[in-house]
Amino acid sequence: MIQEKEWGKLKDSPNYIDLYQFILDADFSEILKMIKDGYGYDDDYYIDILNDYKIPINFKLKVRFTKSEVEKSIVLNFDSYKITIYENKNTRKMSNQSLNPKSYYNYKVEHISNDYDTIKKRVFEAILKDASSKNSIDVKEIKPNYDDKDAFQSAFELILNLVDSKLENDKKWQKLTDKDKKDLFFKSILLHMQINTAIYSILSKYFDNSFHFDSTREIPNYNYKLKNGQYGRKKYYSLLNNIPNESLISKEISNNSIGEFANKYKKVMRFLKENNLGDYIYTEKTETEGKLKLRHNNTTIDLADTSSGLLQIFPILAKIAFWKTTDLKDDKAKFSIEEPELHLHPELQSKLIGFLLGEDGEEKDVNLIITTHSEHIIRKLQVMFAKGYISDDEVIINYFKNEDGKTTVKKMELEDDGFFKEPWPNGFFDASYNLAKELLIARDN
């Protein structure tokens, strides 16, 4: 134990003693006193000690696709603990002003075997709770950022507060050895810094910026119950509160009325009208109920009664039009779409892809992952590539083939003229050619 006279000399002359060795040798109570007396969190010798406790965080992303969601969780392994972090959807709020809100997370810490682990679990949970209530910091690597003095200070303040307010009188904490207390103290600071300077920016990237459309689109209800004049957040792809009413549509969806999304929504309506799918889609409300309506050729019908082709593409176009990235400005939203060609005739399939990929010259705010069996969609990509609308940096075409229970992936590269560098595998483009050939043979016979 460092004697009080040595502590006094240390306070008067920091160079009198090896500070790094002092902290290693000191009792935990002396370390706390040292910090509170002015040798605080911005000093380099604490960084040296954290290096002794450095524990990498290994993590894996778990993904489950539902009809209209991508459910994700992050599993972290830290100091023999498994920490599962997942989105708490009940606390997410969505409005016209904030379409991609700050996320909040639930977490589960697993591994308890003794009093030390019980205390450690409580501390780790407090760190996660603290981190989940803050905006993420955009750091690309999963490692503590020792240059971030704010994170360093935040970590010390949180752990000190936990010790003073929650642990000091806890019988399990009092039973811990001095070594265990110091071990937990510095490991907790390390975890806090890693969580705050890296993990939550990664969570925001993975959790906030993705949406999934499975191959079967949801059919809208005829009526929706309203609460305080608002639709339920999860109803119909979370779109309902963003679709304007007819009076706004009649004013050409004024930018002053519904903000920066007006122009994008007008383009969606223009696409529907140009393809004879309808003039516009709007929401109609009473005090307690809301409906989705389609106006087409001076006739109004419920959206639920419209064509399957319209119901196939409208939620995709509207969701992309209303999407706004707020937390991570440099990361585009990721939309995965299964078989967008279903219920669409060939011409509309190709027009849909042209619209989604910016054939109109507008830069898109999203990344698309599309699965398809449509040769018309692939041909449209070839044409757009040949005309310079898309490039190798923007589009990757992969062919998936299953043989003997194993799936292989082959990247299909394009020449500058839009033709493939290698022949497309059999059973796709050649199918229509072979049928035409059979038809000609049958006619001649």
Structure description:
With 445 residues, the protein is of the alpha+beta class. The chain folds into 3 domains: 4-39, no CATH class; 51-208, no CATH class; 213-395, P-loop containing nucleotide triphosphate hydrolases (Rossmann fold). The protein is built from 15 helices and 13 strands. It has helices spanning 4-12, 19-25, 28-36, 44-52, 115-132, 149-167, 171-175, 178-208, 246-250, 255-258, 262-274, 308-322, 346-356, 375-386, 429-444; strands spanning 58-65, 70-78, 81-87, 105-110, 210-213, 224-225, 280-285, 289-296, 299-302, 333-338, 366-371, 398-403, 406-411. It has a 4-stranded antiparallel β-sheet with strand order 1-2-3-4, with helices on one face. A hairpin with a 2-residue loop joins β2 and β3. α5 (115-132) packs parallel to α8 and α11 runs antiparallel to α12. The radius of gyration is 29 Å and the shape is elongated. Mean pLDDT is 76; it is low at 1-5, 9-17, 91-103, 135-144, 254-258 and 325-330.
Number of domains: 3
| Whole-angstrom Rg | 29 Å
Name of the CATH architecture of the largest domain: 3-Layer(aba) Sandwich
The low-pLDDT segments are: 1-5, 9-17, 91-103, 135-144, 254-258, 325-330
Largest sheet: 4 strands, antiparallel
The CATH superfamily of the largest domain is identified as: P-loop containing nucleotide triphosphate hydrolases
Strand content: 15-25%
Which structural class fits the helix and strand makeup? alpha+beta
Helical content stands at 40-55%
Q: Give me the side-by-side strand order of the main sheet.
A: 1-2-3-4
CATH class of the largest domain: Alpha Beta
The CATH topology name of the largest domain reads: Rossmann fold
Report the total helices.
Answer: 15
Nearest-integer average pLDDT: 76
Kindly, what is the distance between the CA atoms of the first and last residues, rounded to a whole number of angstroms? 104 Å
Shape: elongated
Number of strands: 13
